[in-house]
Design brief:
The chain has 557 residues and is of the alpha/beta class. Helix 8 runs parallel beside helix 9. The strands form 4 sheets. The chain has a 6-stranded antiparallel β-sheet, covered by helices on one side. A 5-stranded parallel β-sheet has the order 11-12-13-10-14, sandwiched between helices. The chain has a 3-stranded antiparallel β-sheet with strand order 5-7-6. It holds the Pfam family Trans_reg_C.
Length: 557
């Protein structure tokens, strides 16, 4: 992010840190009330760093902010930062203000207090922006999680180290906020801190973020050692929220806190487990949706997903209670969102504009990724697109490609099918299996057990996102063709065996897997790719024959 000094000057009239007062309007730096002489460039650097205290400010951003259109070598920046450190007395009596992140930039790490132009002070420690005693808000309607919260509270007190793991937007932070409030009697008002690691970009800043959140000034050279010393002997709950992009740093810190203290309890939220000794992992399930295709209004409202949807729809302008005629529509909407709380809320927020059936149409057109949420939400939760962008960027290139290929499956699929579709060419089956295991760990692919068979599935929102990525990389047609060939051969084998090895129920399940609900565009791609292949028509007859004998396809249009 490139920031201009003009915008920074209007943000906070004064900033206080340690024994210093930074007056932006008068362009003065005072120490114990006495002015400290620093150059104009040094003053601008200090403004830029304190404006984004706790964040990494890149060298590029600093050069642009301070020198604007003048071409300046990075060596000049280093000289000015060194001069600024001397003026601040960096290192004297353990004082620590500016940290260098090698090859990247700088971060202002001291606790600060801001005073705005109207005289109202807002104080707090940084990093990050959401931290310490500022706990995540609890929704007006907190549905479907009471039992989970009770169980997790018991686990935290007994085991000390619990990670809540689940897909993006599923409600991990909301559950963490509820747990903090339930455990306030256990730890006291000052005994719980919340650290939003989603606002921390660099692994080297994690320990400092937690140290700041627990209320300890950042003074020493080793924040983790300081943190361990500060919390030793204390009874405290530390919540580390959104750890998935800082797994190594968060894992090391959590492991040290767990092993080196006796009174510290840890609650971690992440899309992937930390996988360290002592960690108890709880997989947070989606909100339950109606099972019946045509439920009554009463049956639909008995499920948490529908209750959440109707509550948010009412806030968005929907009037009246859910009736029996609309219950199937709302139930299908909730099922299409896979019970993911953020997706339900974003879709429901458009009911006032589009109506229930209009919103259902948005889902059918895959428009849900662009729906915007509350303005005060963290950036990665303002749209489903942003949420999935965040997850996708954290994947290795091989995982990104396999996830994109798996988007061809509508519904459940087996590891064999996945390897056949995504494992051709340079990607061998073993590599695909490893990638899928990692995607499961990262909560992007879900596991389903049907009898003794393990199936996998992409949540609909994730599949829509991944399908767009598949088109972006130009591999939609070859993947569609491999998908068609695999299932053609699969059903041909069934036809040859005369259905003796598979029940009608499994055939129905596999027909869903084959993607009978896939988009028209996907079907056209398959048709174009397959038109020149003589083996496709006979396979299609095999598929149709198996489906017909199993009763699949009745009522299709």
């Amino acid at each position: 992010m490139v920031m201009s000094i003009d915008s920074a000057e209007s943000s906070d009239a004064e900033v206080f840190f340690g024994r210093f007062q930074l007056d932006k309007r008068r362009r003065q730096l005072l120490k114990d009330g006495v002015e400290v002489r620093i150059g104009s460039r040094g003053f601008d650097i200090l403004i830029a760093l304190t404006e984004r205290a706790g964040e990494l400010v890149s060298k590029r951003d600093l050069l642009f902010s301070v020198w604007r259109d003048v071409v300046v070598d990075e060596a000049v920046l280093r000289v000015h930062v060194a001069s600024l450190r001397r003026a601040l007395g960096e290192g004297q009596d353990g004082a620590r203000y500016i940290v260098t992140v090698s090859g990247r930039g700088y971060s202002f790490v001291a606790p600060i207090e801001r005073k705005r132009g109207n005289g109202l002070a807002s104080s707090g420690y940084v990093p990050p922006p959401r931290h310490g005693r500022q706990f995540p808000s609890i929704p007006r309607l907190f549905v479907g999680r009471d039992e989970v919260v009770d169980d997790l509270c018991t686990l935290i007190v007994k085991q000390r180290f619990v990670s809540v793991v689940g897909a993006g937007g599923i409600g991990k932070t909301t559950v963490a906020g509820a747990i903090i409030r339930r455990l306030q009697a256990e730890f006291g008002d000052e005994g719980a801190v919340f650290v939003d690691l989603g606002a921390v970009d660099e692994p080297g800043l994690v320990a400092g973020a937690v140290l700041s959140a627990v209320g300890c000034p950042l003074g020493g050279a080793e924040p983790l050692a300081e943190l361990l010393g500060f919390v030793a002997g204390k009874r405290i709950l530390i919540v580390l929220d959104s750890c998935e992009h800082l797994l190594d740093a968060a894992s090391h810190l959590a492991s040290q806190l767990f092993q080196c203290t006796s009174g510290v309890c840890l609650l971690v939220t992440s899309r992937e487990a930390l996988n360290v000794e002592g960690e108890i992992v709880h997989l947070l399930s989606p909100l339950a949706c109606p099972i019946d295709d045509v439920p009554s209004a009463a049956d639909a409202m008995a499920t948490p997903a529908v209750r959440l949807f109707m509550d948010r729809a009412s806030s968005a302008g929907f009037e009246g209670a859910l009736n029996d005629a609309d219950a199937p529509v709302v139930s299908e909407i909730c099922r299409r969102t896979d019970g993911i709380a953020l997706a339900i809320e974003l879709v429901a927020s458009r009911v006032g504009t589009y109506g229930l059936r209009g919103v259902a149409g948005l889902l059918a057109s895959h428009m849900e990724l662009s729906l915007t949420g509350q303005r005060n939400a963290v950036p990665r939760h303002r749209t489903l697109q942003a949420m999935l962008d965040w997850s996708f960027r954290l994947l290795a290139e091989s995982e990104q490609r396999v996830l994109s290929h798996l988007s061809i499956f509508v519904g459940l699929f087996t590891i064999e099918a996945a390897c056949s579709v995504a494992g051709s060419g340079e990607r061998k089956s073993a590599e695909v299996e490893i990638a899928i295991a990692r995607l499961v760990n990262k909560s992007l692919v879900w596991v389903h057990l049907v009898g003794d068979t393990v199936f996998y599935r992409l949540p609909d929102v994730t599949r829509t996102y991944a399908a767009a990525k598949l088109v972006e990389i130009g591999e939609a047609e070859p993947v569609s063709l491999r998908h068609a060939l695999y299932f053609g051969a699969f059903f041909k084998a069934i036809a040859l065996e005369q259905g003796l090895t598979l029940t009608s129920g499994v055939i129905r399940l596999t027909s869903e897997t084959c993607g009978r609900r896939s988009s028209g565009a996907s079907q056209k791609r398959i048709a174009r790719s397959a038109s020149s292949l003589p083996q496709i028509p006979p396979l299609c007859f095999s598929v149709c024959g198996c489906w017909s004998s199993a009763g699949v396809g009745r009522g299709w249009h």
